[in-house]
Amino acid sequence: MSLVAASAPQTFLRSRLVLNWLGVVPFLLFATLFLLLPTMNIVVGAFRNADGALTLDNIVALFTPSIRAAFWISIRLSLVTAVLGCLIGFAIAAAIVFGRMPAWVRDSVLTFSGVASNFAGVPLSFAFIATLGRLGLVTILMRDWLGVNLYGTGFNLISFAGLCLTYLYFQIPLMILIITPALEGLKKEWREAAQILGATDLQYWRMVALPVLWPSLLGTMALLFANSFGAVATAIALTGSALSIVPIILFAQIRGDVLNDPHLGYAVAFGMIVLTGLANLVYVVLRTRAERWVK
Amino acid sequence: MRGRLWSIAVVLIGALYFFLPLIGMFEFSLRMKRGVYSFEAYRVVLGDPHFQQTFGYSVVLALLTIVLGVLIVVPTAYWIRLRLPSIRPVVEFVTLLPLVIPPIVIVFGYIRIYNTSSWLPLTGSWLGTNLLILFGYATLSLPYMYRAVDTGLRTIDVATLTEAAQSLGAGWGRILATVILPNVFVSVLSGAFLTFAIVIGEYVFAALLNLDTFGPYMVWMGSNRAYEPSALAVIAFAITWACMALIQLLTHFSTFAKARR
Fold it and tell me: Which domain holds residue A13?
């Protein structure tokens, strides 16, 4: 008698548990088929040779001069745009938060940043070609007004510097969007307390504000690094295949096996995942650190 | 006072950097007729049947992606809040993965798994390839969609609403469609506009899956024409701007509605 009484709620519980899990099956199926499996497939492919046997040859092949050079350009490009994006974005965010600007300036900067951080890809590169290309607006204005031949000075939009300049158009706004809340989170009392104790502005920044902010700053820098490392469309539309950065090589490899070795292609993709993954990990870790001050 | 001047200088220089390319692309798009500014490039682009076809295609893909995204994300986010709060960190982690794994790697995986000689040869047929890109775009929009919907769900009492609906005799489908969805509609819309902005000009997925959408069309124009690409960039910028403005308007509107309550 007591046995029946005990098992009835148990089956009820069990069926409820089954139902609970059934509810997330569509999502798990979707995520597995279109996100996890495809990625795993590439990762596993990077560690196999043409016969399907496990090998590290593909990873070793990543260090052949041409591939290593491509990774090095990509890493430099991402580093430069992340550091500059961070510094400039920080300066603009600080200006709108501490500069006693009217509220509409702050709001417009933030709204515009939302748009610009999403205005990446093909149209962005067209905008820069129309501005700094050989017939671009700025190029022509400099020639007609200042008598400066921009392309005579060695500048070329289809180059490392040109790509940096273009990437900053979505990197700086992303920084502004992320760091503005952090700057607004700095409590007025901290500054007042520092002032009462006789600290100068510089001392306040060096000893109070920056130590609180640095996890956010470094974390965002890591995020910007990943953001530019994975960018493909902007680079392709701007440079065609003139610049051998990793995403462009991978794109050409997927289209037509330019490396003549499919498994080397997987290894290149794997290398990309590792770098963007590491950068995001740094971001997450530092973000949790940063949030300790926001209560 | 000196700090203020500095701030104004920084904002002005920033504005210069950000507005020059916009002015540049607009000015360039007007230069098609020699010697005078005209909207000729826009007339040519808008009249191009290939433009109409690819743009329409991308709009349809974007709308279908939004529907698919809503169908996947809303029930999942709801169910996790209601019944499985313990696996929320896992699901959240998965939804953020498309920001970590570069899209080009994801589509590379698709081509490997779903090619014509695989167990599920999606790329072999027109319908299959379109389905594949839809699911791909839904994956790309997952981080934004999930976060938007989850934030929306946080503001309502999911458990009480569900129990109230159930005691009135509603089934799961009815609860989701007539109780939960209307309550998170504003959040869903802001996720939807962002998805629209991302999908409409997307290049890598479409190009590698050989689909003739707006993104590849823009790249083709970029390497074959002089003035039309700038007109296209202006159009794309206007779309991005409109999507973001609508999101802002929605959030503004919803906080206003809440404050009045």
Answer: 1-46
